[in-house]
Every structure is written in structure tokens, then in C-alpha cells.
Amino acid sequence: MIHLILFGPPGSGKGTQAAKLVEHYGLTHISTGDLFRYEMENNTPLGIKAKAFMAEGQLVPDEITIGMLRNKVNSVKETRGFIFDGFPRTVAQAEALDHLLEERDEEITGLVALDVHEEEIVQRILLRGKTSGRPDDNDESIIRNRIEVYKSETTPVSDHYRRIGKSHTVQGIGSLDEIFQRLTGVIDSLID
Ligand code: AMP
Predict the structure, then answer these.
(1) CB atoms closer than 10 angstroms to residue 74
(2) pLDDT in tens, 12-65
(3) How far is CA 64 from the centre of its chain?
(4) What is the structure's pLDDT at 192?
């Protein structure tokens, strides 16, 4: 099994690259942001709980997020592995993920981070906001809040995997294809 964490700040291109990687490696894409948006659109109890946190650019509490992720992982019956996109976003989530995979006698193959500087991601998210219809993409103060949350809560996740030699970084600026080549360069070296 290949289990990859595609890591990086909001707006670093994780969703776009995950879609290409999923096709290339035959993996299953799990984006917790997409799962929350689906729940919200369908007005489920989970979506209703998540909505206020998402609107403010805050993280949805770990308990809710981990429960949703666990259900999703366990619902996939046949796969070569997962690409986790937007998860884990806290060390508690990373520990829960490690534990969940351990129960299946599996483990994270590697975390690959997209490195993009702050001003570039603010501009990218504002541009995406024009078409994404996402309220959290349309307000600069909320975008900056998401970046602050990323710095304080989420960057320790890459340290968590760095300690066990599983954290890698590629430059996230360039054309879609250039970035994809950089990612597959790292991933191929992990799965060979
Ligand atoms: P994203 O689409 O990954 O940018 O996520 C959009 C929003 O969904 C985030 O700003 C959070 O409010 C929420 N969210 C997504 N993934 C997580 C996660 N792993 N933990 C907590 N909140 C999350």
C-alpha cells in the first residue's frame, strides 16, 4: 500500500496536484476540506457543525475531523492506497492517522510538502475565490487567518514525520507539469 500525505499551506496547489497524482499512481484521494464541503452542501449534522469553523478559517475540532476521516478510510474497500490532502492538520490528527493505519498493518509512505511563500498563496487564493464560490477564499483577513492557523497548528505535522525520516519538500512554484514532475520524482524514490 502507498499512503501519501500531500502537505502545504492553503492555496499551495495540493488539490490540483492530488488529482493528477491519484490518476498517475492509481490511489484514492481523500480531501477533508472536500468532505466537509459535501456535508455542508447536504446540510448534514456534521456539515452544520463544521460550517462556522470553516467560515472563520479555523480548524474543525480534531474529534469531528478524525471521526470523519476514519469513516472515509474504512469505507474504501479496494485501493492501492490513499493520498491525504488537507489532513492531517494537527499533530493529534497525525497520531490518529498513524494509529488507524497501524491497525491495518500499514503506514504512511511519506509526506511531501509544497513550498510556496505567503504572498503568493494569498494572491492565488483570492484568484481562486473568484470562481470557487468558497466564502473562505474571498476575504483576505480570513485567508490570513488560515495561514496563521497553518503556521501554528499544522507545520508541526511535518516535524512529526521528519523525525522518522518521512518528510520531503518540493518547490511549489512553477507550471503544473513542473511541479508534478518534482512530486513524482520524490514519490518514485519512496516507492521503488
Ligand atoms: P481546505 O479545503 O483543505 O482548504 O479546507 C477548508 C477548511 O475545512 C479549513 O479551513 C478547515 O476549516 C476545514 N478543514 C479541512 N481539513 C481539516 C482538517 N484536517 N482539520 C480541521 N479542519 C479542516
Answers:
(1) 11
(2) 999 999 999 999 999 999 999 999 999 999 999 999 999 999 999 999 999 999
(3) 16
(4) 80
Q: Cell numbers of 173, please?
A: 512554484
As a whole number of angstroms, the distance between CA 115 and CA 170 comes to 6
Q: Which CATH number fits domain 2-27+79-191: 3.30.70.3040, 3.10.105.10, 3.40.190.10, 3.40.50.300?
A: 3.40.50.300
Question: Which residue, by CA, sits nearest to atom 12 of ligand 1?
Answer: 54
Q: List pLDDT tens digits, range 161-191.
A: 999 999 999 999 999 999 999 999 999 999 9
Place of cell 480570513: 142
Ligand 1 atom closest to the Cα of residue 14 is 3
Ligand 1 probe mutation, 14, 16, 32, most atoms within 8 A of CB: 32
- pTM score above 0.85: yes
- List the residue whose alpha carbon is closest to atom 10 of ligand 1: 57
Amino acid at 151: K
Residue 118 and residue 191: Cα distance in Å, rounded? Answer: 31
